[in-house]
Amino acid sequence: MRKSRYTEEQITNAIKDSENGKKVKLICDELGISEATFYSWKKKYSGLSSEEGRKIKELEEQLHNLARELNALNSDKEMLQGVLKNFFTTNDKRQAVNYLQDTYEIGTRRSCRLMDISRSVYHYPQGTTPGNGNR
Fold this sequence. Notes:
Layout: H1 8-19, H2 24-31, H3 35-45, H4 50-87, H5 90-104, H6 108-114, H7 119-123
Helix pairs in contact: 1-3, 1-4, 5-6
């Protein structure tokens, strides 16, 4: 998120000036902004003190950082699952699921999802192949 050139105090003061009867065009000319920018500020910060505006900006920045982190983690997960899909056998994945369950005390559903293996394949008896009647 791009950092604003204007402080929260400047934004709230501009809004207060307009509420006190000062012309919007004059306020915009003083700050060097468009009227559209002023009205978007008014929509967002109307009725807030500068402290509340600062808190909102901090929370928005934190949210932006968390979203960026989440996207990176999702990307990492997809890459690792691609490696699992192409370089590990089903038995290797079963062993990894067992390891996750024992080490991190998580359930079958979550550990199978992490290892990109379906629960039915995980529970399927080893050494048998579907369709040959060895059940």
